[in-house]
Structures are given as C-alpha cells and as structure tokens.
Amino acid sequence: MTVVTPLTGAGAEITNVDLTDLSDDDFATIHQAFADYGVIFFRGQELTEHDHIAFAQRFSTININRFFSFHPDFPEIALVVKEADDKFNIGGGWHADHSYDFDPALGSILVARELPPTGGDTLFASMNAAYEALPDDMREFVDTHAALHSGKHIFAKDGAYDAIEDFQGRIGNAEAGNELVDTVHPMVIKHPLSGKPMLFVNPGFTVGIDGIADEEAKLILLKLYEHAGQEQFTCRFEWKPGSVAFWDNRAVWHFAQNDYEGHRRVMHRITLDGCPLEGMNPTIASSPVTV
Ligand code: SIN
User: Is 101 one of the annotated active-site residues of the chain?
Assistant: First the structure.
C-alpha cells in the first residue's frame, strides 16, 4: 500500500508506489498528499518521457513553458540544464514559478535525468507554515494587502536571463517576456486544493505591494522573506537517480542549489496549468495590471 511520510519542515515522501502503474487508490492518496503537504517526493522511479507526461496529465493540462528550452521530441518537457562549464543554474534563488500570471501554474513535476556526483539539491519552503508562524502585526498586514508580481525583470529583454550570456540556449524568448502582463495577487491566498491560508509572495517575482510606496514595500517584503526562508519551514531534497519531486507553486517556494561546479545536471520538468486564485480574505482579489 502507498505510504505517505511527512518530512520535517515541508513536504512528504511517498513510498511503495510505481508512478507508471497507478491504481485509482494510489492516485487518490498521491493527490491528497499533494494537497496536504504542497510538495511530494518519490524515489526509485523509472519514468520514460511518455510516463512523465501521462503522470502529469492525471493532475491538470500541461503548460508548455514559454521561456525554457525543451526536449527535442517532447515540447511538453522543459529542460532544466546546467552544463559542466556553465556558471549559473536555473532557479538558483527562492521563488514560486509563474506567480506573475493571473492564474499561476499549479506546479511542476521534476524528474532527475543526469546528476552531479554531489550537490544540486533542491530546497522547498512551506508557505502555510510560514504564514501560521507570522507575528500578529505582520499577519494582520498580509491579511489585508495584495502584492504585485512580475516576470519581466527575469524573462524580458535585458532581464536577468537575457542579460547573462551563460543562459543563452537554456532560457530565451525574451519577446514573450516583454509581453507578460503583471498581476496583483492577495498576499495570503486560500489554497485551491486544501483551503489553507498560504503566504503568497516570493523573492523571485514579487516586486511591490499594492498601495505601499516602493521603498517601504521592499522593506516589508524583505522582512517576510527572512521569516519565510527560515530553516524550520524548509526541507532539502537530495536527488538520486530515479528521484521525482512534484511541488505546488501556490503552497511552497523552491530553490535549486548551485554547488556542483564542473559537473552537468539535467532535469526534465513538466509544469501544469493552474487556476485563478482567491484571497483568504474575500475582499482582496487578484487582478491583471493593465497600464
Ligand atoms: C526550478 O524549476 O526552479 C529548478 C529546480 C531544480 O532544478 O531543482
């Protein structure tokens, strides 16, 4: 029988299951664990690209990434690659993918394909645990505010990826980055699956707070990031051949470690479509920023 073992800090490991041969009960257990823990891990899986796609499609439609290079035979699979002579890695800071979209991607399923001898772990942080542990004054603030999310400083022309030579061939399509529409989201969302409150700001893509001057907003966001990135809300996933991680962008942050200089790391990532978000406080809503 499929076994779900919660990890300290964030997430759960699921054992005794073969992702290529899921019964309806297995699927229900996995789906529930995903809703409960925000990130789930599997070991010893032997997934072909077809298996990876089939598993993903049980959860949602596949969101074909606009910016990542993709598998030559499977455009559904984005490549998260760092070559031995690359300096920078993809996702090397705390972030939640697609938070800049009006209906942010549900999450991603990452499969290890080629790993460095050591290093290259991924950290995850629980945004429910971080929210629940906020001091009262900060909680009151986030409960009553919305934040501005943007992907332009990362993906548009002259953004972080475009400006660094090292990312050429791995991340591109800056024209689509220029077209991104910024979005305001509640700082605390009601999670679409669990109904739990989640702190919904992240260092990668949150660029301001609605109604708050830039300098003050920056200080508030920094304080929130310091709080949410504390070790007690996080777990570290050490990749091995056959490892799979499935995270929910509405529930956790993630952070790929860049500590394997001189080695190649190749991961296959499938991202899944999400839905519009609701505020935990029903008076705070998401809206696209059209200027
Ligand atoms: C990412 O999707 O941010 C990359 C995660 C990883 O490579 O571990």
Answer: no
pLDDT digits (tens, 9 = 90+) for 243-280: 999 999 999 999 999 999 999 999 999 999 999 999 99
From 41, 68, 70, 108, mutation site for ligand 1 pocket: most ligand atoms within 8 A of C-beta: 108
41 Cα to the center of ligand 1, angstroms: 14
Q: Which residues pair with 247 in a beta bridge?
A: 39, 108
DSSP string across 80-127? EEE-TT----TT-SSB-TTTTSSS---EEEEEEEE--SS---EEEEEH
State the residue range of the domain holding 169: 3-288
3-state helix, strand, coil in the chain (%, to 5): 25, 30, 50
Its pTM stands at 0.96
Nearest to 217 by CA among 208, 206, 227, 205: 208
CA dihedral 260, 261, 263, 265 (to 10 degrees): 50
- Cβ of 65 closer than 6 Å to ligand 1, yes or no, is no
Q: Which atom of ligand 1 is nearest to the CA of 108?
A: 2
Strands of 206-209's sheet in order across: 206-209, 146-149, 183-186, 287-288
| Helix H or strand E segment including 178 | helix 174-178
Interval 177-189: pLDDT, tens: 888 889 999 999 9
Residue 275's CATH number: 3.60.130.10
Q: Is residue 256 within 6 Å of ligand 1 at its C-beta? A: yes
Mean of pLDDT over the chain: 96
What's the domain count of the chain?
1
Nearest C-alpha neighbor of 101 from the set 151, 45, 37: 151
The catalytic position among 52, 98, 113, 254 is 254
Structural tokens at position 270: 């499938």
